Amino acid sequence: MSYYVTTPIYYVNAEPHLGHAYSTIAADVLARHMRQRGEDVFFLTGTDEHGEPVAQAAEKLGLEPRELVDRNAPKFKELLPQINVSNDFFIRTSDPQHEARVQEIVQIVHDNGYVYEGTYEGWYCPKCADFKTELELGPGHTCPIHKIPLEREREENWFFKLSAFQGELEKLYGERQDFVRPKARYNEALSFVQGGLEDVSLSRPKLTWGVRLPWDPDQVMYVWFDALLNYVTALSYAREGEDLTERYWPAFHIIGKDILKFHAVYWPAFLMAAGYELPKGMFIHGYLLMEGHKMSKSLGNVLDPFEVIERFGADALRYYCFREVSFGQDGSVSAAGFEARYDAELANEYGNLASRTLAMIDRYRDAVVPRAEVDPDLAGGGDGLAGLEAKVCELLDRADLTQALEEIWKRIRRLNRYVEETRPWDLAKDEERDSQEPGRPRTRSGAGDRLDSVLYNLAEGLRVTTLLLTAYMPETGERMLGALGVEGREIQAFGAHRGGQSIERVPPLFPKIEAAAA
Ligand SMILES: [Zn+2]
Asked: Does residue 236 sit in helix, strand or coil?
């Protein structure tokens, strides 16, 4: 099966920040997870480069728009390795191949009869590059997002017959309750549709920085349609000499809540008008709100993602974003919150479990995982290891990144309790004593068998949880799976591996913050 996941394309005028990293990491977790399930994955991200704001910014700097975007796009491209993102392609909407393909598709929409010429008059926000309907306006004709007074603009342009898709979109939302997730965003999109759809501007006159309409080159395409089409156009030229559209389309989109209307309403209508299959679905995430007043030990009081990466690695940031704030909702992040979870969860719970398990196998079993059976005590119960992989897969099918991580983490905690309950160090002492009894043959005592079982179960529990964590924390996952002597990266059930492999001890995966700061 193929799995195609996309991020929003980022507006090239901005400086990359945590919000960009957040959407991109989310898509990366899904892409990596699906690869581990053996899916044929394509993962796309990129930059949105046309439109009036870019032209204006370039003019201010005395540059051509092309020079400005060539200067800014690399900042977004360079962010990707820093946050350890495994995208298959990076699209820029100023790519000539994208522009040519956009022209072909918009010509189809025109030829199918969904385009007409008209006069537009309305309240225009140059920062959103969008006309606001009366319902969307803020007090005193302001942009609700940018809080700036809006200009009343009147112009001749081409319209897209969005209203023609009223029935089709209602049908879509009726039949596919999971088309937009989470449910609150689905309801928001549905009520927008039910409120009655008006035709929307497809093009704008006077602008030059954009894709020209093939039948009216004096007009450039409205930047939103140009941008949305990236999800389709990329597949036609991401691989030289190969068109991947058949292989990967339709996509699953990860987006932020600010661009819901474009993706959940305009985009499916436009695809229908062009005769394309609709997206598999989309997940709309909330905002990470910066909280700066809590004291932090090492990071200053504001969470700077680049500083976190530099000092603690990308994995810690990737983990924190989806652990602290439920994916899909708004929530606060802070430097103090980061440190608290880093120490309590990554260093103490996971890091400690890993180093204890490896150390005990090294010491008591010459660094070879014993061959034993699954311990029903550890497998069963609400936080037992049995069935974890199926649960996580089901949650990630719904892009529920936070709940999936919570399920994994419950098992990390269960494994730590298992160490305390079984006390392998006492079992080792008993085994030692038994083996030294005079006259007793040097066969395995009961304590020795029990120690084999406990060590095997710990290694196996760590293997399964780490395989699932690898999508979230790829560097840590690689190190730990290497240390555990695990060959493949495919997701497996608890007990699927029978032991017998050699392990290696590793330095602490997440050194405590006090130590790091010293
Ligand atoms: Zn605005």
From this structure: helix
Angle formed at CA 406 by CA 400 and CA 408, multiple of 5 degrees: 105
Side-chain-side CA neighbours of residue 279 (13 Å): 29
Phi-psi region of 445 (alpha: psi -120 to 50; beta: other; left: phi over 0): beta
Do 76 and 12 meet the contact criterion of CB atoms below 8 Å apart? yes
Q: What is the widest separation between alpha-carbon atoms in the chain?
A: 102
Arithmetic mean of pLDDT, 289-298: 77
**Strand pairing category for 281-285 and 331-333:** unpaired
Catalytic annotation present for 253: no
Query: Angle formed by the axes of helices 352-365 and 401-422, to 10°?
Result: 40
17 in catalytic set: yes
Is 125 annotated in the active site? yes
Which residues place a Cβ less than 5 A from the ion ligand 1? Answer: 125, 127-128, 143, 145-146
409, 391 contact by CB (below 8 A)? no
Q: Identify the pLDDT of residue 132.
A: 85
User: Does residue 515 register a pLDDT over 70?
Assistant: no
pLDDT of residue 437: 73
Other CB atoms within 10 Å distance of the CB of residue 200: 23
Mean pLDDT, residues 409-415 = 98
Q: What is the pLDDT of residue 507?
A: 94
98 catalytically annotated: no
N residues, the chain:
518
Cα-based distances in Å from 432 to 352, 360, 366, 444, 468: 25, 14, 14, 10, 36
